[in-house]
């Protein structure tokens, strides 16, 4: 009871909570973008930014006013005002908690998808401590200021009310006195000179605010003026994908190209190599456009032209094929000697797998940032500890690190040692970029060779994947081996291994419920899955023995008996294995099993708490050790020499050590989230380092090319693989990569007005040769807000916003490889001008082209996927 005596009256406290929460949220919102606002413009338009918040505050103050005597209706209004106050307080606390965790702000439009996903809720709840801390601080400030805020706001509203009442009396007097002496009588008798000045000031302020509101630029000020709780309405505007209706109308490619970007009518014919009953994924090979229209729905057609809307490599202006080029000479020699056997394929996807950690070595922006956390006298010790963190990655890539003395690191303590001869080991791609910083969209690129749909989260699960995925390709080979098949005769000359059927298995030690991954796995063609539910089922052969280590499930080591059984089956039975395995320990919160010895990689220098980075580095070391266990099991079961292992990161992971403004992948376009490892490991393939900016869409073309060129397929399978290979968008990495082409053009570029982001400064190029880049497009988690645009053969990079509230970002990765000093702007024209002055004409022209290509690509991906918002 004594405690209750110290509590303030409820309406003033609720009002103070709304006022403090709303204004604090607005201050944070503006602070996150103030660096990109011209100072004079910010000062000029600042009143309009807080005007919506002031109107909300005034509205709730009226609702919480409790006159005497109180009425039932007034209680209803008071309850509504209290509810709005609690909503604003909660939302503001979430914004501050999210900011303290990631450095970013909450996108309420995507929150509905997370709230409906139990696994995603665990991610959100991981930051509950910071949200509670923010809520406590806001509530404390509100408690301290509640009386004055409630009183002052009440006085202000009363003054406005009195002002309007006085104005009404004045008008009534003027209308009631027809003689010309009204100025000396009525005006001065109804109000004094002070009231007149107040009216004049109020009218001037209102007129100025209205003028500024009407004349200010919409970008970015409309976004910055959003006020709680109105911005929460975005959470109820979630749209989902549908296959109904028509496909999106294609846009003309905005740059000049000698590729015919129109559709090729009447060009369909059923391939001779296709079995009678192909597996899912081959519908556009199996059925003609007319059959598809009758069989499925009109979504595969442009309604007006009745032409196919699915992906056509012959009309893709972004596709550059290198299949006409020769294979690398060392590889050609190995293939001719028939020393490379590929009976099995393993695709390892490293969660949050940054290239700088695979392997960790000196000379990268990340390594330099890590060293800065140590004092000068301890840096040699830190170097020696860091370079021994990922020894398995060193052996798989062939990128061996050097210690503080410049000597090759001693890897004798690793749990696996590479038995391959010197100079052997396969392809190591240095410069690979992910196609998406959202894991499952990235998996679509590596497993299916497709580019993602630029919308939030995994809406692709409601659509048909527009290219066959790896499990479907291997199932196609199995269907062709069916004795019932009348299409091709059985190849009796093939070796025993080539006659064996493929078995595709997906394994991960965590749940597959998050963001419909179970649906995605089914759509990709996986029939055998080992996931968290397998590890916890009483019917399973091997149940998990350890504790769950993160939101999603267990450590990868719980899969070890399942992996060993699969390897032994591949070694002893008549099957060819395709294993897809996704690691997860390197996902936030980066916990490891209790029996895993942690190392201290970080020092205590700087203004950053390095705890999170240290946890991430230890989780990377744990995964590296797990890869060593996989390689050991391959050696022990005797299939290492006939297994192709592909290692790729799904995306990177940015920390405060990379970028002090933002961390994580969510709506963070930093280059640290895009650089990933890409390795094609085989002990009998020569070691070749490939320095190209390729993406994971090159994985399927490379695997198919390897299977064909190494004679690891029988005649029928080889024919099918060779026919399918040119249809994929990516280039094969066993041949020299083509970063760009020089094409002759004799006419100006025609730029469609609906996607014109080209600056008025730009002049059309003269006749001659023009560079046609191999453009790399990547979406930024959660998918629908920003696109990363790069081009192989160019150091420039553009982060292109797809909706308001995000800035254009340009960087030159040659001069700024860690992207520490990018150029940001709210408009493309302003960004082009800034880039022109700092980097010159060539960079500015590339930037303009990149903006056009990115806008076109977004529309094209929606058309190819058959995406329509419902």
Describe what this molecule looks like in 3D:
Helix content is 42%, strand content 10%. It is an alpha/beta fold. The protein folds into 3 domains: 2-236, no CATH class; 329-452 and 501-727, 3-Layer(aba) Sandwich (Alkaline Phosphatase, subunit A), CATH 3.40.720; 740-869, no CATH class. Strands 5-4-6-2-7-8-3-9 form an 8-stranded mixed beta sheet, with helices on both faces. The protein has a 6-stranded antiparallel beta sheet with strand order 10-11-12-13-14-15, covered by helices on one side. The protein has a two-stranded antiparallel ribbon with strand order 1-16. Strand 11 (768-779) and strand 12 (786-792) form a beta hairpin. Helix 2 runs antiparallel to helix 3, helix 2 (10-31) runs parallel beside helix 4 (72-102) and helix 4 (72-102) crosses helix 7. 45% of the residues are buried.
In short:
With 870 residues, the chain is of the alpha/beta class. It is built from 27 helices and 16 strands.
CATH fold name of the largest domain: Alkaline Phosphatase, subunit A
Report the sheet-strand fraction.
Answer: 5-15%
Helix share of residues?
Answer: 40-55%
The profile of the biggest β sheet is: 8 strands, mixed
Low-confidence segments, given as residue ranges, are 1-6, 167-190, 483-491, 747-766
Order of strands across the biggest sheet?
5-4-6-2-7-8-3-9
The coarse silhouette is globular
Mean pLDDT, rounded to whole units? Answer: 84
Number of extended strands: 16
- Please give the CATH class of the largest domain: Alpha Beta
